[in-house]
Amino acid sequence: xxxxxxxxxVGYLDLKRRQxxxxxxxxxxxxxxxxxxxxxxxxxxxxxxxxxxxxxxxTENRNExxxxxxxxxxxxxxAEFKKAVGDAAPAIxxxxxxxxxVRAKAEIGEYRKQKETEIALRAEELVRQVAKQALGKGLDMxxxxxxxxxxxxxxxxxxxx
Amino acid sequence: MYSDVYELALTTQDRxxxxxxxxxxxxxxxxxxxxxxxxxxxxxxxxAKYKDNLPGVREAVKKMRDxxxxxxxxxxxxxxxEVCTWVRKCxxxxxxVDFVVKPELIGGATVYWEGRYGDFSLKKKxxxxxxx
Lengths: 161, 132
Fold this sequence. Notes:
The complex is a heterodimer of chains A (about 160) and B (about 130).
Chain A: H1 2-86, H2 88-138, H3 141-157
Chain B: H1 3-6, H2 12-29, H3 41-49, H4 54-62, E1 65-71, H5 77-91, E2 95-101, E3 108-113, E4 116-121, H6 122-129
Parallel strand pairs in B: 1-2
Antiparallel strand pairs in B: 1-3, 3-4
Helix pairs in contact in B: 2-4
């Protein structure tokens, strides 16, 4: 009986010892696994950064090339446009200027004519008024009568009388 | 025939006055009253010559012919007499002048006679010769 109990105790202790060893080994392996995972993760991050950097550089490079191509295309189109209208442009511009000049000249002429007419009418009226006042005031009774007699003579000559 | 009667009126206004005076003289013939002082002495003296034919005189005065004249201003009595004398020498002793004042004519006159018209005013001359 005692032997059996001792055997059980020894067995238990041995099992306990073995379990302890297994736990330690598991800890080591877990630690190793963690380190390995961290390493893989770092490598993945580095790789991702490298890819991103490469992609950025590639994009910049492409953009630069695209800009160059666009510039060339633009220069080419401008050159072609200039070539197309180069000869006609001065003539068209000149004709347009001439048309505008003629139109402006006509408008100015019309305006001047209108103003001249207005001024002439006003001047006429002014002269008429001044003449009336000057002559009317300048005539005494004798001159007035003489003008009436002269008017009668004219009427006779004109066969009104 | 009525030369002395015609001498009593030179203008259309004079005629109206003279007709009233003739009427007063006619009325007075049927009354004992003397001719009123409203009848001018000269008129009374002329009408006395025609006392048997006052209606005829009145009719003759009424039938005197008119010549219309537009002038720039009123004339003096002397001026009226001179103008009317000229007109009568030209047109006849039975012509009366109808003066109408139009200051805008400035001077001279416009003349209307028997359907004819002429503008001989200074205004017209200014318009013609002065271009205004």
